[in-house]
């Protein structure tokens, strides 16, 4: 969650280099720090693919939720940017699993990864991954928070996906940390 920028923008705010912005996080921070509620409005839309509907259960159903604010997420980010620098870099040695989460800065290379059960020949689950200090970090993301075009990466060819490596700085919530034995 949080914000991701191309690494060469360092800690200077440059919205042209913004890759990912979690509007829910920013709006909550904005309300907390500015003492102003940006008045979230939630709109839900439901759709059905061809299929059978039975009461509340339906085949191929989807629900999409859209949140809108009286202030744009970019404006909120601009006003909060100085406060976000108060978050510290990730301290791997002192993070304790199962003792809560922590919001930290990480830098590395944004890539696409795939997880498949061992021995499976079927296409696995694709996700964004951050390569940080020779470690691989799985990112749990909402595709709609990415800048235009990034949500289509998963539909691209394997050749294109294999060559993605964007240097970034990210403000993320660490939920758990696993060190794998080599």
Count of helical segments? 3
Main sheet specs: 6 strands, antiparallel
Structural class determined from secondary elements: alpha+beta
Number of strands: 10
The chain-level mean pLDDT equals 78
Overall body shape? globular
Rg over CA atoms: 19 Å
User: What amount of the residues lies in strands?
Assistant: 25-35%
Biggest sheet, spatial arrangement of strands: 2-1-10-7-8-9
Pattern of helices and strands: EEHEEEEHEEEHE
Fraction of residues in H or I helices: 10-25%
Uncertain runs are 6-10, 50-59
- What is the rounded distance between the termini? 28 Å
Can you give a write-up of this model?
By secondary structure, the chain is an alpha+beta fold. It contains 3 helices and 10 strands; from the N terminus they run E-E-H-E-E-E-E-H-E-E-E-H-E. It has helices at residues 23-34, 73-84, 158-161, and strands at 3-6, 18-21, 41-48, 53-54, 57-58, 61-68, 102-115, 125-132, 135-138, 166-174. A 6-stranded antiparallel beta sheet has the order 2-1-10-7-8-9, covered by helices on one side. A two-stranded antiparallel sheet has the order 3-6. A hairpin with a 2-residue loop joins strand 4 (53-54) and strand 5 (57-58).
Tag the structure with descriptive keywords.
182 residues, alpha+beta, six-stranded antiparallel beta sheet, 3 helices, 35% strand
């Amino acid at each position: 969650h949080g914000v991701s920028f191309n690494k060469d923008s360092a800690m200077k705010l440059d919205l042209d280099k913004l890759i990912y912005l979690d509007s829910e996080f920013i709006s909550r921070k904005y309300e907390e720090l500015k003492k102003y509620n940006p008045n979230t409005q939630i709109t839900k839309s439901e759709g059905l693919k061809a299929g059978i509907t039975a009461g509340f259960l339906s085949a191929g159903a989807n629900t999409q939720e859209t949140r809108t604010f009286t202030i744009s997420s970019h404006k909120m980010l601009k006003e909060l940017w100085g406060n976000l620098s108060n978050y510290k870099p990730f301290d791997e040695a002192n993070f304790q699993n199962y003792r809560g989460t922590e919001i930290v800065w990480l830098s590395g290379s944004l890539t696409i990864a795939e997880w498949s059960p061992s021995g499976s020949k079927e296409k696995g689950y694709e996700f964004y991954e951050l390569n940080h200090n020779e470690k691989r970090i799985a990112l749990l993301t909402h595709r709609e928070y990415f800048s235009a075009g990034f949500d289509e990466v998963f539909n691209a060819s394997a050749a294109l996906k294999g060559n993605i490596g964007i240097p970034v700085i990210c403000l993320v919530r660490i939920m758990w940390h696993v060190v794998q034995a080599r």
